[in-house]
Amino acid sequence: MTTTNGYDAYQGAGELLRALSAPIRVAIVTELAAGERCVHELVEKLGAPQPLVSQHLRVLRGAGIVRGSRRGREIAYALVDEHIAHIVADAVSHAGEADGRDR
């Protein structure tokens, strides 16, 4: 991943941020920061339909943000890297600060 100008790192960061661009994906990552969860647990916590949660989990899995492991008849999802939790927490915190300044 080394180039003369380091553009590959920027490209990877852009892909990561693109994968996190949907608010429900931010919410999913926030939930997974507390520990692994099955789809039904995310559905209950987020109040979103199961097909929608599953669709967004597929996007996050495809982007290498979450991984799934079999837990009996279910699949438990977890963050691949704790850095993602920090990025999302910082973004949510920053957005909250910006909302307070705009008022």
Describe it for me?
By secondary structure, the chain is α+β, with helices and mostly antiparallel strands. The chain contains five helices and three strands; from the N terminus they run H-H-E-H-H-E-E-H. The protein has helices at 7-19, 23-33, 39-46, 50-62, 82-102, and strands at 37-38, 66-71, 74-79. The chain has a three-stranded antiparallel beta sheet. Strand 2 (66-71) and strand 3 form a beta hairpin. Helix 2 packs across helix 5. The model has no long low-confidence stretch (mean pLDDT 91).
Broad shape: globular
Mean pLDDT: 91
**Could you give the order of strands across the largest sheet?**
1-3-2
Structural class: alpha+beta
Order of helices and strands: HHEHHEEH
Number of helices: 5
Tell me about the largest β-sheet.
Answer: 3 strands, antiparallel
Strand content: 5-15%
Q: Low-confidence parts, pLDDT < 50 over ≥5 residues?
A: none
In angstroms, what is the radius of gyration?
15 Å
Q: What share of the residues lie within helices?
A: 55-70%
